[in-house]
UniProtKB/TrEMBL annotation:
Gene Ontology molecular functions: hydrolase activity
Alphabetized InterPro entries for the sequence: Amidohydro-rel, Metal_Hydrolase
Keyword check for Transport: no
Pfam families noted in UniProt: Amidohydro_2
UniProt cross-references to PANTHER family, sorted A to Z: AMIDOHYDROLASE 2 FAMILY PROTEIN, NODULIN 6
UniProt-recorded name of the protein: Amidohydrolase 2
Taxonomic superkingdom: Eukaryota
SUPFAM superfamilies associated with the record: Metallo-dependent hydrolases (SSF51556)
Length: 409
């Protein structure tokens, strides 16, 4: 890469970053719990085997091979896997995290498998100069609440309407407690995975009770519950949006890019326009660049004060050209003070390293093109980098941090 603009390069490659959406590392004993190919693809099952033939994989192998000091001629995806397996886990984590310049991480610890396989959110403080904060996953709170109620009332079953009221009350109080908790930076919904982003604005009490009856039909103590009833899921999201607005805690939504559990046509944030309008006091964060619906998300961020666009997860899942194209789309219409950055790092420390390295490079390249064409001054481009990487997240999550300019030396 040719560096033409020194001030822009200094900001893009060395300004501290707030990772506004990530997930925990696997523990050392569980470091091989998942196929490493999940680092570069959302595919699952047999489809994941094809991910090693993507441009994203070829690039990731080269970059990780360089990070691990491997000879260029020896680098392949399998060779990288062997090399990382030979490293002490603490050393592996440190090698990947030290170059990132991440000052603070906001961790969604509601990902499936976290309790059994991953580290706690505060464990990650060892890699940052500012404390890690939590993002509370809405659907996990709901499922845990319902499982506890089923366990509690198994011996003396209650009518559906009484149980539904008890569930709603407990869920409300749990969300409210999280909203008051200084360790919680915000909330996240995976409605996109469950029933789609066309979240309804209202429903009747009868509809809620019927949906609750459907969700609990045949459930026994000890059963794991996955809420997949649209009326109920949408009702829970509305509760969270109301409370989050009162306590000024942003609500993140998975949009776009995901595994095959989502319905792609229901994953566009365009479906969210009515709900964004209905809750003007609540801050909505549209995650994962909303890929491949980035322009839809950019439109929402441009025309609604309470909508923000996160450009994450595309690193390292997309090719370099794809990443640059997405950032261009993010900047086509979105105000620069409305865009946030994240790694969507999960399980493997390499997901954080690649997420940072590739996003910093793409930001520099896209903004340098605009400066070269005299569409921006270099000073303006530097400000955009600082807002995207740090300032915007610091502001909307109320973190109150000062950028640690010495974090990368």
């Amino acid at each position: 890469m040719t560096i033409t603009y020194e001030s822009l390069a200094l900001a893009a490659f060395y300004y501290p970053a707030i990772d506004n959406h990530a997930h925990p590392f696997l523990t050392a004993s569980q470091r091989s719990a998942f196929d490493f190919e999940g680092l570069i693809s959302e595919a699952q099952g047999d489809a994941l085997k094809d991910s090693v033939y993507t441009l994203a994989c070829f690039r990731a192998a080269a970059e990780l091979g360089n990070l691990y000091g491997m000879e260029e001629d020896d680098v392949s995806w399998e060779a990288v896997k062997e090399k990382r397996a030979s490293l002490d886990y603490d050393e592996l984590c440190a090698i990947n995290m030290k170059p990132t310049g991440i000052q603070c991480i906001l961790i969604d610890d509601g990902l499936g498998g976290v309790n059994e396989l991953a580290e706690s959110y505060s464990w990650h403080d060892r890699f940052t100069t500012s404390p890690t904060k939590r993002i509370v996953r809405v659907e996990v709170v709901a499922q845990n609440t319902l499982e506890q109620l089923v366990e509690q009332y198994n011996a003396s079953p209650l009518s559906t309407d009484v149980l539904c009221d008890a569930f709603s009350s407990r869920f409300f109080e749990s969300i409210k407690a999280s909203a008051k908790d200084p360790e919680v930076a915000g909330f996240k919904s995976v409605a996109c995975y469950r029933t789609g982003l066309d979240i309804s604005l209202n429903c009747t009490s009868e509809e809620i009770q019927n949906a609750f009856a459907e969700a609990t039909d045949g459930v026994r103590p000890g059963d794991k519950i996955r809420l997949s009833t649209k009326v109920l899921n949408d009702y829970l999201v509305r509760i969270v949006l109301e409370i989050a607005g009162q306590y000024k805690k942003p609500v993140q939504f998975h949009t776009g890019l995901g595994d095959n559990d989502i319905k792609l046509v229901k994953s566009s944030p365009a479906h969210m326009q009515p709900i964004i309008e209905a809750y003007p006091d609540t801050t909505f964060v549209l995650l994962h660049s909303s890929y491949p619906y980035t322009q839809d998300a950019g439109y929402l961020a441009a025309v609604y004060k309470n909508a923000y666009l996160d450009f994450g997860e595309i690193f390292p899942f997309l090719s370099g050209d794809g990443q640059r194209a997405v950032i261009r789309q993010v900047l086509e219409l979105s105000p620069a003070n409305k865009i946030l950055w994240s790694t969507d790092g999960h399980w493997w420390p390499e997901s954080f390293y690649l997420g940072v390295k590739q996003s910093r490079e793409a930001l520099y390249e896209v903004l340098a093109e605009s400066v070269r064409r005299e569409e921006l001054t270099e000073t303006q481009a530097v400000a955009i980098v600082q807002m995207a990487l740090f300032e915007n997240s610091n502001r909307i999550y109320g973190l109150g941090l000062q950028p640690n300019l010495s974090i990368l030396g």
